[in-house]
Amino acid sequence: MAKLNLLLLAVLVACAIGLVSSQHKARKLFSELEREQNRARDLDIEYGRLQLEASTWGLHSRVEKIATGTLRLRTPEPRRVRIVTPGAAR
Amino acid sequence: MNAATQGLVRLPVWRARFVLAALLAAFWVLGARSLYLQALQTDFLQEKGDARYSRLIEAPATRGRILDRNGEALAVSTPVKSVWAIPADAELSGAERRKLASLLALERNELAKKLADTSRDFVYLKRQVSPDIAESVEALGLKGIYQHREYRRYYPGGEVTAHVIGFTGVDDAGQEGIELAHQASLGGKPGSRRVIKDRLGRIVEDVESIREAQDGRDLTLSIDSKIQNLAFGALKTAVAQHHAKAGAIIALDVRTGEVLALANVPSYNPNNRANLSGAQLRNRVITDLFEPGSTLKPFTLALAIERGKLTPATLVQTAPGHLTIADYTIHDTHPGGTLNAAQVLQKSSNVGMAKIALSMPREAIWNLFRHVGFGTAPQLGFPGEAAGKLRHYRSWRPIEQATMAYGMGISVSLVQLAHAYTVFARDGELVPLSLVKTGTAARGEKLLSTETARAMRAMLELAVQPGGTGPRARIMGWRVAGKTGTAHKQENGGYAPDKFVASFVGFAPASAPRVVVAVMIDEPSAGEHYGGIVAAPVFAQVTQGALRMMGVPHDAPLEPLETPAEGEEAKENT
Q1: Which of B63, B202, B236 to mutate to probe the A interface, most A CBs <10 Å?
Q2: Which of B54, B257, B508, B556 is the most core-located residue (most Cβ within 10 A)?
């Protein structure tokens, strides 16, 4: 009887320690998850900011100014433009 | 005296009993106290306990982005900081105040005034400062000065897309345009949740989610920012060149009913809205009504053809160039003699149109006008859509029936006019409009027969040929069709003799239309005021660019257009 009690006590202690350690692990993992979620949010914000920057750099008026001013490009004469429809391509 | 030292003295029994009772009583008190704490006052204590480690934190939500049809960003929210203070706690030295004021770009006495009211617990010092400024403010480490995160909306398109997109207020809620119309889906709902934090402030456990945070949904508009930019640029140039008060332009995709471009001049920069005037904010395309003038002629003519009253070849007597109904006389700028119906439209003869209109019942004309959308708001889902003025036919006098045929006595918005022209561009179908990208061909309501619509296309194409009123609307490589309009502006109940609205509505390519473009220039005052001269070139420029960007095949030879000699162009007066 006493042996059985001792055995049960040992099992109980083991269970208790297991509970504590798994709880600790869960919290650690959770805080990691939280960190990653924050990172995801930050990256999303960063993406928005970059999108904004891309839009600003790619403003049509700016592109046009550089194309016609610095690069001296111009719209081809309509006569030199061929429009190809997908079906008639070959 | 020796009794005490000689033997054990018996203590009185009552002392032992007293101690026992006292101890028992002490236990009872402890028991009662613990019962009170554990069972009766448990809520309060639980709360106190929770307060040590559990926190209610806000889960932020961002506002959805607005994108153009090709995924280019038109409106994006990014976080910024707002700096606020608790005046009673903010005891700043003179040097600190100076530093803070210069960082926040505030006047020193303005800052002093904000910090002077110590009865308040919360004063914004500056809202929406950029992250780097916020960082340097934080680096000062001032007492009683705090920051919190807010979102600011940026509009990379600036004034080009200002009227379509609108803007949000400082609290990130839509106030104008699409931002207001789609507030419900764009706006995110911030949530909150209860968590457990550890000693270091890290969140270690999610206890419960009180409200799930919902980010706003991104919205893809039908606007093509390239065409939009082209349209805005061309309109701005034309308005400046003709010293006009304002201008508006809209471009529609004929197949899908999507709005490809929508621009107004004057415009404003939505990123910096100081000193805005009402005129700049007005979205004229949608909210402004005007008497369209001749651009309305094709509808009455189409009805006459539909009803079998005439064919494009039917002759109409327009001599001697004026027509008197009751005590009102209708004039033509250039008396034309006997014209066929196609020429009536080409030369934009008011007398001819009045005669055609008078040959039909009022009700039929009213019905067509109503069905193409005049007099009802266009249902674009945009704030402040104007319905226009179309009186019931029972109240029309004969003269009104005649003048309405050439667009007087009826008022429409530019979007209604462009929308109505899809009837001609789509073989008689009126397609529903959309400001949100649909990408699929839309089905519309059939109002005219295919034959009538084709006949109208041919006639509208004649109107932009040399000899018509709008030859400057032509473009190299594509056939275009359209109608000019020049209307006197209404003022104080009458028509102003020297103020005009010049307009042009048309579509291209005429063989299989893909875009409808409508242009309106308000009060051109640099000498020229005819729609064919002021508005048609804007149409040509935008249509050519739009067709090129959409990759529409040419349907006309690529030869330079012969320009009509000065004075040879037909001009009209409505």
Answers
A1: B202
A2: B508
